[in-house]
Amino acid sequence: MIYQYVHSLKKGDAIGNEVVAIREYLLNEKMDNLIVKFAPDYPQKGTIFVDEFEKNVKADDLLIVHYAWVLPDLIWKKMKAFPCKKIMIYHNITPGEFFTNYDKKTAKAAIAARQQLAEGARVFDAAWGVSRYNCEELTSLGYKNVAVVPLLISFPDYQKEPNRVLMDRLNDGYTNILFVGRMVPNKCFEDIIFAFSEYKKQYNAQSRLILVGNDDLRTYVYKLKNFCRDQEIKDVLFRAHCPFSDILAYYRSAHLFLCMSEHEGFCVPLIESMIFEVPVMAYSACAVPDTLGDGGICFTDKDPSKVAGVMNALFTNDSLKTAMIENQKKQLQRFDHKVILTELLEKIRQYQN
Q1: What's the distance, Cα to Cα, between the start and end of the chain in Å?
Q2: CA-CA 20 to 30 A from 77: which of 13, 109, 248, 279?
């Protein structure tokens, strides 16, 4: 039996989507498998809880652990004692120092997660990172049998119907600059706002910035909103907890995706932007250059005036935009579901008894 452990299986979450996709693929290959959860969230077929797994796991089973955050000590101790072979899929952990000034509890949990990650080198038979950046970290910690297995992204999901009313509202002659991601400090939303403000002042008064993502870290979000108010930066839209149809509308209405994040283990929104043929500019940090490839512009200088100048060049140079879109199509081929799943199946079979 093959098991996948995920601490909490959430609808719409990138990791949750991958876990379900792997399960369905293995079933299609006539390979019995179940999803093991700790958190008692929404019921779903094919899932069991840790206690049931612990009672039934055998030495010839295989456990795939999706690791992205600290596990409770009780679960971590059990994980080390399970008799089966164990493989980690590492989705990366945001360093705790990003949260220190906003949420000490989260900062402490992030530090604990990295301590667990270091211990895991002695626990897992293999470790797969969703990016080269993640694999480099695993190798530096002493993990063995490290390999890149890119994150599974369901391209057909993005062909679903967008919110047409929202699209009509956004297609009003304004230039829409978009960023999608949790509103947390490592994403550096303030740097996006700085660059947008310069672009708006220097080049295009009829432009708006759309920031879409979970806003649960209220202290950070209040700081961003207060900054926009105090500096009188207009046309900045904060949108949190959106239905998927709204997110599709934002992508379909975007003229540029601007990412200033300083820590990414993969960065799914870069792929989403390429799916919608939205030009991308992104700060060159962590996994971003690898995920983006030649599908956008990576830069290393966050000076707002310089970033604004490059933004304007993209908007006024049709040949540059056309070349970027063609490169995006080539980059997306790296993340084809069939290719990744076939490779994943080959790797899984190496660890089956």
Answers
A1: 10
A2: 13
